[in-house]
Design goal:
Layout lengths: L7 E4 L2 E4 L6 H13 E4 L3 H9 L16 E3 L1 E4 L12 E3 L2 E6 L2 E3 L10 E3 L3 H10 L8 H10 L3 E7 L10 E4 L7 E6 L5 E8 L3 E2 L4 E6 L7 E2 L5 E2 L17 E6 L2 E6 L3 E5 L6 E4 L1 E4 L11 E2 L3 E4 L8 E4 L2 E3 L6 E4 L4 E3 L3 E2 L2 E4 L4 E8 L2 E4 L3 E8 L2 E13 L2 E13 L2 E13 L6 E8 L2 H32 L2 H14 L9 H49 L5 E18 L11 H9 L7 E13 L3
Parallel strand pairs: 22-24, 23-25, 24-26, 25-27, 26-28, 27-30, 28-31, 29-31, 30-32, 31-33, 32-34, 33-34, 34-35, 35-36, 36-37, 36-38, 37-38
Antiparallel strand pairs: 1-2, 2-4, 3-5, 6-7, 7-10, 8-9, 11-15, 12-13, 14-20, 15-19, 16-17, 18-19, 20-21, 38-39
Helix pairs in contact: 5-7
């Protein structure tokens, strides 16, 4: 029997291991035992767990202490039997053993035939241990092969591959992050196949958007020799770099989260991976039937991709960094197109429009704002103020139009300033000075003034009638008496009540007549005030439109015609018209209006009334 290390304890009921010195020390003690002995009824999985920490948890006693009963006894390994166990073949992390019948000399008859022997599982484990096969022995496979007692090659041990852990990663913790690309359902229950249900999600303040899931270490593996195979170290990740404007990282007992600092639209930068929450929607996918469908947004919108043909973007302040082939509709704010507008439209109800690239075959209209273009070709353009560097074959209307070079255009405005003007191929160059025609407005003012005077006279007449009726002695006496009774300044006795009622009956017809005339007075005064308000509004409109119209062309380069064009100053916009009406007005009514200039060269410097 070998001398036992202090960590191995042999008792009558079995062999135990000291749990306080498990691991390397315990493995060395087992090495010394297996050098000359083996462990009968060995619990091999428990031995592997004790030395290498691999396998199921160690059993515990009721008081919580670890119990490691390894075997029933330590038995000497007979030198005569050890040669029965041959070497193993190791290939690709697997040990194979060729089982076949084994024989030993018969001690009773040394010269006689060898006696058939049986291998023992516990001896097999001890022999493999000494030969360097310590981890991964398949005890059950060995036992079955021994019991089968037939020649066969069996895999008796396998290495354990290291199992990778889990990298730290970030997960979504709110459904608000998810887009819905389902068709938009209208109020009548029908589906709009050109729009998505929710392409740009909104989040509320304080909503947790993302959560960091910490990394999890992998499980080590072991070679057949017991050499430890370390798993790769899982990657860590940080939430902080993902926090864009409007978001912040919060660490609590529940973990590490990215939360929204305020309510707004969620934007994800695909390049940097930053998540931001703001009033503006930022998109990088473009606007098409595949990516977004038509968009009807409640806030500002910034798009880095193209807006494809027939797609509509509606919002409040729109910036597009790529080409636009569809329609841009803004309810207010700035419309900024950093590239080209081709065959599309740009409308702004209360704000400016600017196209930095080329506008071609498009409609650009600012109902109450300025239009600024670099180059426009075959476009319909309108706005309070229009400024263009180079315009070709365009129809343009506004309060004030300024163009550096105009070719083949039709321009109408109160104030027109052009550096160079001339025709372009088949397109004529026409400029119209818009001048208010207040004749009809003056007629209306005169008519309404007369009508106001009529109602004023009628009100005076009715007031005189009312005064005469109320001055009748009987009526006046009853009215004064009734007023005092109503105010409780006079208390009638029982004898006086019948007399008062008699007076009321006598004055009744006169009081009804007074009421009718009083209503006539109020009606006349109401009509008089409404008419006076209308006259004041018409006078204001006439005053607003009475400004000077002017046309200035610094250089005429080809046939150019400048005419006057009258408009009715009724308070409506002189330029905010449908595109087809602008084109019709400027291209088919050239013969109307006084000719101010017609020629192929020279300059124009004209002002109304000059």
């Amino acid at each position: 029997m070998p001398e036992l290390d202090h960590c191995i304890i042999e008792r009558p009921d079995g062999v135990y291991g000291d749990p306080s010195v498990l691991g390397t020390t315990f493995g060395a003690a087992i090495d010394r035992i297996f050098a000359t002995s083996y462990l009968a009824d060995l619990d091999y999985p428990l031995l592997i767990k004790a030395i290498y920490g691999a396998g199921p948890p160690l059993p515990k006693s009721p008081d919580g202490h670890v119990i490691i009963r390894l075997a029933s006894a330590i038995v000497p390994f007979s030198p005569q039997r050890r040669p029965l166990y041959k070497s193993v073949k190791i290939n690709r992390g697997k040990a194979e053993y060729y089982f076949e019948p084994v024989y030993l000399a018969d001690p009773a008859d040394p010269d006689g035939p060898d006696k058939l022997e049986h291998l023992d599982v516990d001896e097999f484990i001890a022999d493999m241990w000494v030969k360097g096969i310590r981890f991964g022995i398949d005890v059950e496979a060995v036992r079955q092969a021994i019991d089968a007692a037939k020649p066969e090659r069996v895999a008796v041990a396998r290495m354990l591959e290291a199992r990778p852990g889990r990298d730290a990663h970030v997960i979504e913790v709110t459904s608000d992050l998810h887009r819905s690309d389902a068709p938009l359902q209208l109020a009548n229950g029908k589906l709009d196949l050109m729009a998505f249900q929710n392409r740009f999600p909104q989040v509320e303040k304080g909503v947790r958007l993302l959560k960091k899931v910490p990394r999890v270490a992998g499980t080590p593996g072991f070679e057949l020799s017991g050499l430890r195979i370390e798993p790769p170290v899982p990657k860590d990740t940080e939430v902080t770099p993902m926090a864009g404007p409007g978001t912040v990282v919060e660490v609590s007992g529940d973990g590490e989260f990215l939360i929204a600092q305020h309510a707004g639209f969620l934007n994800v930068d695909s390049k940097s991976g930053q998540i931001s929450v703001g009033d503006k929607i930022v998109s990088r996918d473009g606007v098409s039937a595949r990516t977004t469908g038509n968009l009807k947004l409640t806030g500002d919108f910034e798009e880095f991709g193209e807006v494809q043909e027939k797609r509509v973007v509606e919002g409040e302040g729109i910036t597009i960094h790529a080409d636009v082939f569809g329609s841009i509709i803004s309810r207010g704010g700035m419309v900024l197109l950093n590239r080209n507008l081709v065959g599309g439209t740009a409308h702004n109800a209360r704000g400016d429009i600017r196209v930095k690239g080329v506008a071609s075959g498009s409609v650009i209209q600012a109902s109450a704002g300025q239009v600024t273009l670099n180059r426009a070709e075959s476009c319909v353009i309108s706005g309070t103020r229009v400024s263009i560097l180079h315009a070709v074959n365009c129809e343009i209307m506004g309060e004030e139009v300024t163009i550096s070079q105009a070719e083949g255009c039709a321009i109408a405005a109160r104030t027109v300033t052009v550096n160079s003007a001339g025709p372009r191929r088949q397109s004529e160059m026409n400029i119209f000075a818009l001048q208010p025609d207040s004749a009809r407005l003056d007629e209306v003012i005169v008519a309404m003034t007369a009508r106001v005077a009529q109602f004023a006279a009628l009100a005076l007449q009715r007031k005189a009638e009312l005064e005469a009726m109320t001055n009748e002695p009987e009526v006046r006496k009853y009215v004064m008496l009734a007023s005092k009774v109503r105010k409780k300044e006079l208390i009638l006795t029982e004898e006086q009540v019948p007399m008062f009622q008699k007076m009321a009956l006598a004055a009744g017809p006169a009081l009804k007549a007074i009421a009718r005339v009083s209503l006539d007075v109020k009606a006349a005064q109401t009509e008089q005030q409404a008419g006076a308000d209308l006259v004041a509004e018409l006078v204001r409109q006439r005053a607003d439109s009475a400004g000077v119209s002017s046309v200035k062309v610094r250089r005429i380069e080809g046939e150019t015609v400048v005419r006057g064009m009258s408009y009715n100053p009724d308070g409506t916009s002189i330029y905010d018209l449908p595109a087809k009406d602008i084109k019709l007005k400027l291209r088919t009514r050239r013969a109307e209006g006084e000719v101010i200039f017609a020629g192929e060269a020279g300059v124009v410097d004209w002002k109304s009334g000059a």
